[in-house]
Design brief:
The chain is built from nine helices and twelve strands. The chain has 436 residues and is of the alpha+beta class. The protein has two domains: 147 residues, Up-down Bundle (Four Helix Bundle (Hemerythrin (Met), subunit A)), CATH 1.20.120; 204 residues, paralog of FGE (formylglycine-generating enzyme), CATH 3.90.1580. The strands form four sheets. It has a four-stranded mixed beta sheet with strand order 10-9-8-11. Helix 1 packs antiparallel against helix 4, helix 1 packs parallel to helix 5 and helix 3 packs antiparallel against helix 5. The protein is globular, with a radius of gyration of 22 Å.
């Protein structure tokens, strides 16, 4: 029996939200558990100092949960400009008066305590769009996990050791057909019902596609080495003009972090740097750290093309995850940084879609052939800077999440996007072709 005057137990929905908030924060603190010098240093002009990301997730949480949803007086309004991601490019953030590591930790801890108070008092049945169903909490949980993945990419760029996490992954398999046929016909793209889905995933709308073939599994390192060995980086036939100019200007001849061993014991094989460790490139893993231009060139060389994002989503079978609505488990997908690498191709046959397409979620983000555009009937929510300002023919869409993506921040409708030259993200691809 509950003691008199003890607070009532939290509803299951609130317990789940509190657990998700804690999991995201534990991850952020683990990724920033390092010397202060490494936290305040800018390891690449492509990325923020890690300490900026740490304080930014707290400022975002303060803005949306405390101020917008909770109506609470701002705690640190004087730092809003510093941590506004749209006011300061990443390359310029080291020059800002950033909170130091200790102060940043105190700030985000203070914000979190008040956020839990709001969670305790909020009515999740409130029709207010931020409070209904706990949407605002899902917003900040996903936002923090997305920054955690960004911080992992920053650490990888830094070359510093750590965060390697050599967890056990299932073995790969190469049996069965290399391609899967997806028959012609309509399907419903996007969602109106998945909880915590972003504005760019909405609204659900019908899309009618002709039949097409899509790779059963992502392109592997071994597959990609064949492209390199055939002179793929030296032949302009496979490259878009702007991609060819970029490759020539930057002197690119392999995925980011790859090095050719021309004098060692591997017979001129390829090595990679992974979180400060040099190791042979495993031929069976999906290739990662390739740009959209590299993925597109490989597909052309192979007589194929990249799938559109509609083709990619249809291949998932119209479910929350390719295998159904059950939450991801270690036998279904490689998510959540269980190991700091992709699993071998063919490692997750139980996670296949109804069409038989494997590894659509986890391992590597997959470049598609599509520009990031709004769906018909799109409405910006809760702010235009999340999606709307990026629409156009500047950013290419990625789908599916990577080994570094947390399960709460990915689903078959989730849309990621980036510049076609970006390679520091954990991105790979698969190919497709028409049925004609």
């Amino acid at each position: 029996m509950r003691e008199p005057h003890a607070p009532p137990p939290a509803p299951p929905e609130k317990e789940l939200i509190a657990a998700e908030l804690a999991a995201a924060r534990d991850r952020s603190l683990a990724y920033t558990d390092m010397e202060d010098d490494l936290l305040v240093r800018q390891h690449s002009p492509l990325m923020s100092p890690l300490v900026w990301d740490l304080a930014h997730v707290g400022n975002y949480e303060e803005l949306w949960v405390l101020r917008e949803a909770g109506g609470i007086t701002p705690l640190r309004p004087e730092i809003d400009d510093i941590y506004d991601a749209f006011k300061h490019p990443r390359r310029d953030r080291p020059s800002l008066p950033l909170l130091g590591p200790a102060e940043a930790r105190r700030y985000i801890s203070g914000v979190r305590g008040r956020v839990l108070d709001v969670l305790d008092s909020v009515d999740l049945d409130d029709p207010h769009p931020l409070r209904a169903g706990g949407f605002v909490f899902g917003l900040v949980v996903q936002h923090e996990h997305q920054h955690d993945e960004t911080m992992l990419a920053t650490v990888q760029l830094s070359g510093e050791p750590g965060l390697i996490r050599d967890g056990e992954l299932p073995p790969g398999a190469r049996g069965g057909p290399d391609e899967v046929f997806v028959p012609p016909g309509p399907f419903v793209m996007g969602t109106d019902t998945l909880p915590w889905a972003y504005d760019n995933e909405r609204p659900a709308h019908p899309v009618d596609l002709p039949g097409y073939w899509i790779d059963r599994r992502p392109v592997s390192n071994g597959d990609y080495v064949a492209f390199i060995a055939d002179g793929g980086y030296d032949d302009p036939r496979w490259w878009r003009p702007e991609g060819w100019e970029w490759v020539r200007r930057k002197g690119i001849g392999a995925p980011l972090f790859w090095t050719r061993d021309v004098a060692g014991d591997t017979g001129g094989g390829w090595w990679r740097r992974r979180f400060g460790r040099m190791e042979p490139v495993p031929s069976g893993e999906p290739v990662q750290h390739v740009s959209w231009y590299e993925a597109d060139a490989y597909a052309r060389w192979a007589g194929r093309r990249l799938p559109t994002e509609a083709e990619w989503e249809k291949a998932c079978g119209g479910r929350r995850y390719p295998w159904g609505d059950a939450d991801p488990t270690p036998d279904l997908a490689n998510l959540g940084h269980r190991a700091a690498r992709p699993a071998p191709v063919g490692a997750y046959p139980a996670g296949a879609s109804p069409y038989g397409v494997e590894q659509l979620v986890g391992d590597v983000w997959e470049w598609t052939g599509s520009w990031f555009q709004p769906y018909p009937g799109f409405r910006s929510f809760p702010y235009p800077e999340y999606s709307e300002v990026f629409f156009g023919e500047t950013y290419r869409v990625l789908r599916g999440g990577s080994w570094a993506t947390h399960p709460t921040a990915v689903r078959t409708t989730f849309r990621n996007w980036d510049y076609p030259i970006r390679r520091q993200i954990f991105a790979g691809f698969r190919c497709a072709r028409g049925a004609g």
